[in-house]
Write a structure and sequence with these properties.
heteropentamer, A mainly alpha, B alpha+beta, C alpha/beta, A: mainly alpha, MetI-like fold, 11 helices, globular, C: alpha/beta, five-stranded mixed sheet, 36% helix, elongated, binds adenosine-5'-triphosphate, binds molybdate ion, binds magnesium ion
Chain lengths: 230, 357, 228, 357, 230
C-alpha cells in the first residue's frame, strides 16, 4: 500500500476520533434538551439536528462550505478572530464528520435519557442534589450505555463519511484525503479496485475493533446500571 | 413544625387536607388509596398541588397564592419512599453516601450502618439485595441526608418484627432530636409507639387529627383507626429493674410490671396498651397469671353495630381503652362512673409498643 | 515548492504519472486532488487553497474566469478526448454512425452513460446520440451514472450491455472493449482547459506549461487522451 | 404437593433448603434476607439453582441431575411478586386479563375484581395507582392465571388491616381448592391463619418445618418464630350464632364465644390464639369481662433467658400456648400436670386469626 | 419546477416509505437478537449491520450491485426464481435505502430493548406467556418509542441517501431518480443551484413533517409506556 493510503487511514482514524470526542458533550446536551426540555423551538432544534441525515451529503458539504468557508460568514469570523480555518483542512473534515454523525449520536443518547426512570431523579433531588447534580450523578451514569452506543455510531459513521467531507475539505492527499475519499479515488481508475478493496478492509477492521470494544464496554456498564454486581 | 394545606385532583380522586405537624412524629394513617403518599409527595415537592400552602419550620416551601415553590433539592427532606428507589448504578455504600456527596457535607455513616445492619451489604449493588435489605438501605440513605424534615412512607412494611424492633428506637431518637417526621404506616402499633400527633385520612380528607394520646384513647376515633388496632397510650416512669427480669413501672394508677425495658430508673416512657389486651373485672381478681391490675373508673362506653363495646377507663388523669363484648359489658353492668379493675398481662405489652417518652 | 492541483476525476490515470515526472524533473511537488469538475469549481469559488485547476468541462472554467478567480492569461486547453461506445467483454467493432442499430445491439440490455444533464461525458454522449438520430431508439434503455467511471464499471460488470465513455476511460479496463468511436462532428469538441488560479504560485504556471511538454503529451496519449 | 430441594450460592449468601409443601398453604417464614424470595424464584423458574430438584404435583420442574428445567411459562405458577411488577403499558383491566390473553383461556374477572375492590381502578394505568392498589392488582393478576401453584411473596405487606381481612378469606378458599400455595410473610398472624405447613428459614437454611398446628404449638419453635407472634391453632366448629352478635364455637375443651363469624352452623374453623392473649388461673375465675374460660392441664413449661415463660396447655387432644411471666409461673406453681383455666377474651381473637378449617 | 423534479420528490417519498416499512420487522428482529441473544456470531452480525455505516456509500452501492445486480449471485436467483429485478429499478432504490438506514434503525430499537426491565418479562412468563408472547405483549409495546425513533431515523436517512442508491440503481428519471440524485444533477451544472435549493427545501419539508409526526406519536406512546394515563 502506498504512503498516501496509510496517511488516509491514519487521517480517518484521527478525524473520526476527534469528531466523536468533540461532539459528545454537545450531543449529550442536545439530547437532554430534546428528551426533557419543554421549551419553545424544541421541534426546530430537533429538525436541525436531523438535517444532515435528510439532506444528501453533498448538500450538507456545500452548506458547510458556504458557512465555514473562507468566504462564509462563520468561517470568516473564526479565521479573523481566532485564526481557525476549517475549509480544506483536516479540522474541517472533523467538523463535517461530526455534523454528519450528530443525528445518530443524539438519537442514541436521547433514547437512553428517555428510558431513565424519573423517580430515581426525584429521589436524588430529595437528597439535596441540584438539577445539575442529578444529571451528573444519576442520569449520566444511567445513560452510559446510550452514550457508548451514540459514540460508536458516530465513530463508525465518521469512518464512512464521504460526501460532505469531500465537498467541504476536498480530497487532498496527506491533508484532507480520508479513507473514503481514498477509496473513491481508487475506484475512479482502471484497476484500482484491488487497492480500494484493501482500504475497505482496513476501514472495516478499524471500525469493527471500535465496535467490539464498545460492545464489551457497554455490556459491563449495562450490568452496573442494571444494579447487578459486576 | 410543619403546616400542610393542600388540595389536588387526580382523575377521580380529590385530595383536600390541612393539618399541622408539630415537632415529633406525625403519623399519617389511613387505608390504601386514602392519599397518604400524595400528601408526603406534596411536602417533598414531587407533587405540585393544585392549591395550598406548605410551611416547614417557618419556611414557606409552597404557596399557590404567592407562587412560592421551593425546588425539591432545597427543601432538605429525607424521603424514604414506599418503593425503595435505590440508585441501581451505585453500591449500597454509595447510595448511603449520596446526600453527603451532593451537598459536600461530611457524614459519619457508621452508626446508621450498624443500626440498620448494613455492614455486610456495603459493596453490593441494589439488584442483589432482598426486599427488606433494600428498604433498610433506603431508610439509611434518607437518615444520612440529615434532613430538616423526615418523610417516611411505610418504611418498615417490608421488615420482620425483630428488625422493626431494632429500627424503631432509632426513629424515636430522631423524633426526640426535634426533626419533624411525617410517618405513613398501616400499623397502629408502630404509629402508637412513635406518633406524637396522628392524622387520619379517609378518601383524601382528614377525618381525625390531634395529639396521639388523645386520638388513641378516644373511643370515637376507633372506627377510623380500625378496631383491632385500638388502644391507648399511658405515661409511665421506670421505677426499678427486678431480679426475675421484669421492670416495674410507675403509672398514675399504680405499679405495673413488664418484661425488661432498656432504660434508666426514672426514665419516662409511653406505653401503648391495646384495647383488646385489657380484661375488666368488678372485684379485685386473685390467682391470675396476669400481674398488672389497675383500679379505675369507667368514663365512657361506646357500643357499635357489632357485638363489641369499647370502654374508656379513667386512671388518675389518663385513660385506658378496653374492648369487651357487649354481653360482658351488660353482665358486669359497665357504665360511666362504675369502678372496675383493668387486668393486663405483662407479656401482652410488646417491646414494640413501648417508646421513650 | 509545493502546489495543489484540482483536476477532473477522469484525468487521474495520466495526471498521476505526469505529476510524478514533473516532480522528478523540477523537484517541485504537485499534490493532486481529483473530483468532479463541478464540485472542484465550487470549492475554488469558496476559496480553496489551490494553484492549478484542470477541468473536464469548459463551462465551469468559464464560471471561474467570469468570477475573476483565474490568473489572467493562464487558461489554455491542454487536452482533448474522444467519445467511444464500449461493450461488456469482447465485441465486434462497428462503425458508430446514424446507421448503427444501437437498440438491437443492446438486445434489451442497458446503455450506461454519465448523467446527461450534468456529467460531461454524459452531456457529450447525449449530444452525439441526438445528432446521430439514435437517441429516441435507446432513451428508454439509458442508465445515467454519477460520473463516467461508474458507467465504465456498469459495463465492466455486465450490468449494462453498452456504455458511452471517454476514450481515455476505456484504456486499461480488462472487461470492456471498444466497439467504435463517435465521429468528430457528432458532438462538441471535448477539451480540458487548465488554468492557474489568482492565488496560484509560480510553480503552478510551470506545471501548466509542463502539461504541454512532449513528455507529458506522450503520457496523455498513452492513456487515450488526445493532445492538441 | 410440591417438593423443593435447592442449593444455590450468591456472593456471600448460600441457600440450602429442602422441604415438602403438601396441598394447602405452606408459609415460608424468616427474617429479611433469609432466602425466602430466592426459594420462591427457584420454584417459579426465575432463579436457576446451582443444584437441586423441584417437583410440583408429580411433575418435575427442575432437576439438576437429569438436566430438566421446565421453562417459566410452562410451570403455570401464579406469582405475586414482592414488588408489584405490573405491566406499565397496560391498564389495570388489561393487567388482570393478561394470563387469559396469553393462554387463550376465558376467565371471569368479576369475582376477583369485587373481592379486591378494583372496580374503580380498571381503566387506570399502574403509574396512577397507590402502593396498596398496585399490590391488589398484582394479587388479582396472579389469581386470574388459575395457576397450578400459587407463589405469594409478602402479598399483603402494603395493605391495611381492613383490606387484609377482606383478602385472606379468598386465599383460604384457594387453599381449600387444593391449589398449593407458597406464602412468604413476616406476619405470623397471617401465617398462622393460613398455613397448613410452616417452613422457617434462617440464613438460607430450614430451621423448622412441619404442620402448622404442630410448629405453632411447639414451645421449642417459638424462638424461630419470634416471641410476640407465638400462639397455637385449635380446631373448632360453629355451634350457633347468638342474638347479641357473638358466635358460639365448640372446641375440644368446651364452648367459646367470639364476635360474629361468617359461616354456617356446623362449619369447621381454625382459630389461632396468640400465646400473649391467654391468661391462666388455677381456680375458675368469676366476674371477669372475658367470656371464654377453658379448663386444661399444663403439658409443658419452657422458660428462656428472659423474664417470660411459655406454657403449653393440653385441652383434650389439642394444645394451647400461653405466655406468662416467670414470676406468675412460679406464683401459680405452673408445671406439667397442673390443672389450670385458660382465660381468653372474645375480642382478642381477631377476625384475621380465624380461618376456614 | 419541472415534472421530472416532482417525480423525483414523489419517488423519494415512496422509496423512503417502503424502505422503512419493509425493513422494520427485520430491524426489530435483528435488534432483539443483538440485545438479548447469546449466540455465537453475535459480534459478526453486529458488524454486518453496521457495515453500511462504516463503508463509503459508493462501496455499499457497488457491493449491492455485485450481489443483487442481474449478474450477481443473489440478483440472478431472485430474477430467475421469483422474477424480481432490483438493479436499475425503484425497488432497488428501496433496497439501497433500507440497507443504508438499517444500522440506525437497529441501534435505536436495540437501545429500547435493552432498557426494558427483564423483571417485567419474567412476570409475563410466570403468567403463562411463551417467549414469543412475552415479546409481542410486553417487550414490543414497551419499545414502541424506540421503534418510532428507529423508523423516523430510517425514513430521514432514506430521504437523504444518495451514494449507494445512485451506484446501485443509477439515475433513470421517473424510475430511479430520487430527490438526492436530482439535487446532485442540478448542482453539477452552472446556475443549477436555485433549482437544487428548491428541491432541498421540499426534501426538508417532507422529512420534517415525518419528524414532527413521529415526535407527537412518540410522546403519546411514551406516556402510555411510562404507565401514566394518556
Ligand atoms: N396520577 C394519578 N392519576 C389518578 N389517580 C391517582 C394518581 N396518583 C394517585 N392516584 C390516586 O390517588 C389516591 C391516593 O393515592 P396515594 O398514593 O396518595 O394513596 P396512599 O394513601 O399512599 O395509598 P397506599 O397505602 O396504598 O400507598 C389513590 O386512590 C390513587 O389511585
Ligand atoms: N444477586 C445476588 N447477589 C448476591 N446476593 C444476593 C443476590 N440476590 C439475593 N442475594 C442475597 O441473598 C439473600 C436472600 O435474599 P432473598 O431475596 O431470598 O431474601 P428474603 O428472605 O426474600 O428477604 P426479604 O424478606 O428482605 O425480602 C439476601 O441476603 C440477599 O442479600
Ligand atoms: O472527469 Mo468528470 O468531471 O468526473 O466527468
Ligand atoms: Mg402510598
Ligand atoms: Mg424477599
Amino acid at each position: 500500500m502506498t504512503d498516501a493510503a496509510w496517511q488516509a487511514v491514519w487521517l480517518s482514524v484521527q478525524v473520526s476520533f476527534w469528531a466523536t470526542v468533540l461532539s459528545l458533550p454537545v450531543g449529550i446536551w442536545v439530547a437532554h434538551l430534546l428528551a426533557r426540555g419543554r421549551f419553545f423551538g424544541r421541534q426546530v432544534l430537533n429538525g436541525l439536528v436531523h438535517l444532515p441525515l435528510i439532506l444528501p451529503p453533498v448538500v450538507t458539504g456545500y452548506l458547510l462550505l458556504l458557512a465555514f468557508g473562507r468566504q462564509g460568514p462563520v468561517g470568516r469570523v473564526l479565521d479573523e478572530w481566532f485564526g481557525i480555518v476549517l475549509a480544506f483542512r483536516w479540522t474541517g473534515a472533523v467538523l463535517a464528520a461530526a455534523v454528519m454523525a450528530f443525528p445518530l449520536m443524539v438519537r442514541a443518547i436521547r433514547l437512553a435519557i428517555e428510558a431513565v426512570d424519573p423517580k430515581l431523579e426525584a429521589a436524588a433531588a430529595t437528597l439535596g442534589a441540584s438539577r445539575w447534580q442529578v444529571f451528573a450523578t444519576v442520569t449520566l451514569p444511567l445513560i452510559a450505555p446510550g452514550i457508548i452506543a451514540g459514540a460508536v455510531l458516530a465513530f463508525a459513521k465518521a469512518m464512512g463519511e464521504f460526501g460532505a467531507t469531500i465537498t467541504f475539505v476536498a480530497n487532498i492527499p496527506g491533508q484532507t484525503q480520508t479513507l473514503p475519499s481514498a477509496i473513491y479515488a481508487f475506484l475512479q481508475v482502471p484497476g484500482g479496485d484491488g487497492a480500494a478493496f484493501r482500504l475497505v478492509v482496513i476501514s472495516v477492521a478499524v471500525a469493527m475493533g471500535a465496535l467490539v470494544a464498545s460492545e464489551v464496554l457497554a455490556r459491563r456498564v449495562h450490568a452496573r446500571v442494571a444494579g447487578r454486581d459486576a | 413544625m410543619l403546616e400542610v394545606r393542600v388540595t389536588h385532583r387526580f382523575g377521580g380522586f380529590s385530595l383536600d387536607v390541612a393539618f399541622t405537624a408539630p415537632a415529633g412524629v406525625t403519623a399519617l394513617f389511613g387505608r390504601s388509596g386514602s392519599g397518604k403518599t400524595s400528601v408526603v409527595e406534596a411536602v417533598a415537592g414531587l407533587l405540585r398541588p393544585d392549591a395550598g400552602r406548605i410551611v416547614s419550620g417557618g419556611r414557606v416551601l409552597y404557596d399557590s397564592a404567592s407562587g412560592v415553590d421551593v425546588p425539591v433539592h432545597r427543601r432538605v427532606v429525607g424521603y424514604v419512599f414506599q418503593d425503595a428507589r435505590l440508585f441501581p448504578h451505585l453500591t449500597v455504600a454509595e447510595n448511603l453516601a449520596y446526600a453527603g456527596r451532593v451537598t459536600g457535607r461530611r457524614v459519619d455513616m457508621a452508626p446508621v450502618v450498624a443500626m440498620l445492619g448494613l455492614g455486610a451489604l456495603l459493596a453490593r449493588r441494589p439488584g442483589a439485595l432482598s426486599g427488606g435489605e433494600a428498604q433498610r438501605v433506603a431508610i439509611g440513605r434518607a437518615l444520612l441526608a440529615e434532613p430538616a424534615v423526615l418523610l417516611m412512607d411505610e418504611p418498615l412494611a417490608a421488615l420482620d418484627e425483630a428488625r422493626k424492633a431494632e429500627i424503631l428506637p432509632y426513629v424515636e431518637r430522631l423524633r426526640d432530636a426535634a426533626v419533624p417526621i411525617l410517618y405513613v404506616s398501616h400499623s397502629l402499633a408502630e404509629v402508637a409507639r412513635l406518633a406524637t400527633t396522628i392524622v387520619v385520612l379517609e378518601a383524601g380528607r382528614v377525618v381525625r387529627a390531634g395529639a396521639a394520646a388523645e386520638v388513641l384513647a378516644d373511643p370515637a376515633a376507633v372506627p377510623a383507626l380500625g378496631l383491632r388496632e385500638a388502644g391507648a397510650v399511658i405515661g409511665a416512669r421506670i421505677a426499678g429493674h427486678e431480679a426475675d427480669g421484669l421492670t416495674r413501672l410507675e403509672t398514675v394508677a399504680g405499679p405495673i410490671w413488664l418484661p425488661r425495658i432498656a432504660g434508666e430508673v426514672g426514665a419516662a416512657l409511653r406505653v401503648r396498651i391495646a384495647a383488646q389486651d385489657v380484661i375488666l373485672s368488678r372485684g379485685r381478681p386473685e390467682g391470675l397469671s396476669a400481674l398488672n391490675i389497675l383500679p379505675g373508673v369507667v368514663s365512657a362506653v361506646r357500643t357499635g353495630e357489632g357485638p363489641g363495646a369499647l370502654v374508656q377507663i379513667a386512671l388518675g388523669g389518663e385513660f385506658l381503652l378496653a374492648r369487651v363484648t357487649r354481653r360482658s359489658a351488660t353482665a358486669l353492668g359497665l357504665e360511666a362512673g362504675v369502678e372496675v379493675h383493668a387486668i393486663l398481662k405483662s407479656v401482652a405489652v410488646a417491646q414494640v409498643d413501648i417508646g421513650a417518652g | 515548492e509545493e502546489i495543489t492541483v484540482f483536476a477532473a476525476s477522469s484525468l487521474k490515470t495520466a495526471l498521476d504519472l505526469v505529476a510524478a515526472d514533473w516532480q522528478a524533473e523540477t523537484g517541485n511537488v504537485a499534490v493532486l486532488s481529483y473530483d468532479g469538475s463541478a464540485k472542484l469549481a465550487k470549492q475554488i469559488e469558496q476559496g480553496a487553497p489551490v494553484d492549478v485547476f484542470i477541468s473536464a468541462a469548459a463551462d465551469w472554467m468559464d464560471v471561474l474566469e467570469a468570477g475573476g478567480l483565474l490568473a489572467g492569461g493562464t487558461r489554455r486547453d491542454v487536452l482533448g478526448n474522444g467519445l467511444v461506445l464500449v461493450a461488456h467483454g469482447a465485441a465486434e467493432p462497428a462503425e458508430v454512425g446514424p446507421e448503427l442499430d444501437l437498440a438491437a445491439m443492446l438486445g434489451g440490455g442497458k446503455l450506461a452513460m454519465g448523467m446527461i444533464a450534468s456529467v460531461p461525458a454524459g452531456q457529450y454522449g447525449h449530444e452525439a446520440l441526438v445528432s446521430l438520430g439514435l437517441w429516441d431508439s435507446v432513451a428508454g434503455s439509458v442508465v445515467e451514472t454519477e460520473n463516467v467511471r461508474a458507467a465504465v464499471k456498469l459495463v465492466g460488470l455486465g450490468e449494462a450491455a453498452l456504455g458511452i465513455v471517454f476514450a481515455s476511460d476505456a484504456v486499461g479496463e480488462a472487461e470492456i472493449s471498444v466497439v467504435g468511436a463517435f465521429p468528430e462532428g457528432s458532438h462538441a469538441r471535448i477539451v480540458y482547459p487548465a488554468a492557474v488560479t489568482v492565488q496560484g504560485k509560480a510553480a503552478g504556471r510551470a506545471f501548466v506549461d509542463y502539461l504541454s511538454s512532449p513528455a507529458a503529451q506522450a503520457r496523455f496519449r498513452a492513456q487515450g487522451f488526445r493532445v492538441p
